[in-house]
Amino acid sequence: MLGIAVLGCGAIGMQIVRALAEGRVEGRVVCVHDLSRERAQEAARLAGAEVADSIEELLQSEAEVVVECASVDAARSMLLPALELKKQVVLLSTGALADPELLRRVERFHGSKVHVPSGAIGALDALRAAREGELRRVLLRTTKPPRALQGSPYVERSGLELSSLRKKTRIFSGTALEAISGFPANINVAVAVSLAGLGTERTMVEIYADPEAMINVHEVFAEGDFGRLYFRTENLPSRENPRTSQLAVLSAIALLRRLGGVLQVG
Ligand SMILES: NC(=O)c1ccc[n+]([C@@H]2O[C@H](COP(=O)([O-])OP(=O)(O)OC[C@H]3O[C@@H](n4cnc5c(N)ncnc54)[C@H](O)[C@@H]3O)[C@@H](O)[C@H]2O)c1
């Protein structure tokens, strides 16, 4: 049975631990770590696992797979050491791979794998297939309630008054690379779409603020010699963290099921 270490015991981490502890997915949590010792202890109790005091200690555990569901900073610091130790990594804080130098170093590794779940969106499998032909255009359009965009560096810089918007308004249009620095809260989705398709410099991103919106909507449009695709996700938030979509939690659990399974679909 696959031995799993969980880094980050928040909304995503706790649901993963629960799914494994309840036997809904095959695998055994051997070790957990969180900056909050209380959370780590709760997860460890649920799963009958050890608590590690640091990321280094977590990586030294016997686990074959490390699930990172903590933060972009945590992901940055654990990726290369985990690969050195021949661990497989399930990476939720996909934003870490927006750093081209880190991405290049990760891609050079042999003998291990970094798995990026589809997270809060879909269509990554189709983009991956489409780029084997000529993939000409990929656009990610994200629509959020204005309050979810408040405080983003791009909004602060441009002096946009989001609270005065009366109708759905496009507030940003640019490359994924530009979107990543302007809207760090959108970073995981923009990086995942870029990795599957055309990269951060050729993937286009539009961000809409909609005062009527209650939830986040992500739409992926693509065109190439395969034809065209359109994929829309209307994401309900997870119960534990309103900023995290429940689909992202489920995508991580589905990925773990896939790792332990024989049949690989998509
Ligand atoms: N790929 C996607 O589509 C997607 C979707 C949602 C969230 N995410 C990312 O997944 C990660 C987890 O999301 P969440 O909703 O569970 O967050 P959360 O805030 O509910 O939980 C994160 C947990 O990680 C812990 N943590 C943070 N930094 C740490 C560090 N350096 N070392 C140890 N523990 C640390 C926190 O204490 C917290 O308990 C975030 O980075 C988030 O951006 C990705």
Q: How would you summarize what this structure contains?
A:
With 266 residues, this protein is of the alpha/beta class. Helix content is 36%, strand content 24%. The two termini are 23 Å apart.
Structure description:
The protein has helices at 11-21, 37-47, 55-59, 72-84, 100-107, 124-130, 146-149, 153-158, 176-182, 187-196, 246-260; strands at 3-7, 28-33, 50-51, 65-68, 88-91, 114-115, 135-144, 169-175, 204-209, 216-224, 227-235. It is α/β, with parallel strands linked by helices and 266 residues long. The protein has two domains: 3-119 and 246-260, Rossmann fold, CATH 3.40.50; 124-235, Dihydrodipicolinate Reductase, domain 2 (2-Layer Sandwich). 45% of the residues are buried. α1 packs across α11 (246-260) and α9 (176-182) packs antiparallel against α10. The chain is 36% helix and 24% strand. It has eleven helices and eleven strands. The chain is globular and about 50 Å long. Strands 3-2-1-4-5-6 form a six-stranded parallel beta sheet, with helices on both faces. It has a five-stranded mixed beta sheet with strand order 8-9-7-10-11. β10 and β11 (227-235) form a beta hairpin. The mean pLDDT is 95. Nicotinamide-adenine-dinucleotide binds next to α1, α4 and α10.
